[in-house]
Amino acid sequence: MSDIVAEQVAEATPTQPWLRPQSAIRRDIATFVGLAVLAYAIVLFTGFARVDGWLIVFFCLSFGLIFRRARMMSQKDRRNALVQVVIVAAAVVAFLPWMSILASVAAKGVTALRPNFFFRDMRTTTPDDELTLGGAAHALLGTFTMVIIATIITLPLGILSGVYVTEVRGRLTRLVRFVVQSMSGVPSIVAGLFIYTTYVNATNSFSAIAGSLALGVLMLPTVART
Questions:
Q1: 218 found inside a domain
Q2: Is 72 inside any structural domain?
Q3: Does residue 197 belong to any structural domain of this protein?
């Protein structure tokens, strides 16, 4: 009896035809790794540019392999492979510039990570001086100060707003909820311009309080909703 039930359960198990076997996935990964190594060898022994040339050669080899495989597929599998190639290529095209920017920033910025970067400021340093002079202590201290002031301002207001909307439900519940939801979609540039026109122009001075107020406009809806 148990064998019959086990067979029925096995037959009722849903299948997943869209999943490829692990062996096929490993084979494809090994193939593309081999193509990447081959593209590197071609770039190494030819006059192609370094990274750009490798990408061009790698894409040409990959499309050649995919085209060769597509000739041996059915029409349905050929369309599926074409869609997969387009999706992967679009993801690579969108992802590579982002990674290039991050790599460039990291490669050029790592040389500035010295002890003076964290403990010295730019009061007596010009932009053309060596990286061993000056630092970002003023920026780090200013950021820390603005975060502390903004937290002191927005944390009580956010908690009180959240409690009022969810627990008290008074006459102003709809208005408070509407204001909180509206502030959730305010861009940071709009918050900065609002504080600039209302506070900075009125006091005719820049200060950490102005930055804290702009940061508080962005923090308040998050605190109130969470």
A1: yes
A2: yes
A3: yes
* Residue carrying the six token digits 């408070």: 176
* pLDDT average, residue stretch 22-49: 79
Residues 167, 224 contacting (CB under 8 angstroms): no
Euclidean distance between the first and the last CA atom of the chain, given in angstroms as a whole number: 54
- Which pair of tokens denotes residue 155? 């944390």
Enter the tokens of residue 42.
């071609």
If asked whether residues 43 and 144 sit together in one domain, one would say no
Span 81-93, average pLDDT = 76
Give the domain extent around 180. 137-225
Task: Give exposure, 44-83, as e/b (b: 16+ Cβ within 10 Å).
Answer: eeeebeeeebbbebbeebbeeeeeeeeeeeeeeeeeeeee
- Length of the chain in terms of residues written: 226
Alpha-helical (H) ranges within the chain are: 2-12, 22-44, 51-70, 75-109, 115-119, 137-163, 173-184, 188-195, 201-203, 208-225
Q: Token pair of 12, please?
A: 């009722």
pLDDT of 12 strictly over 70: no
Nearest in space to 178 (alpha carbons), one of 165, 160, 189: 165
53 occurs within a structural domain: yes
Band of the pLDDT at 155, cuts 50, 70, 90? Answer: very high
Q: Which two tokens stand for residue 165?
A: 């909307």
Give the total number of structural domains in the chain: 2
> Within a 10 A sphere around the Cβ of 221, how many other Cβ atoms?
20
| Distance separating alpha carbons of residues 72 and 157, to the nearest angstrom | 66
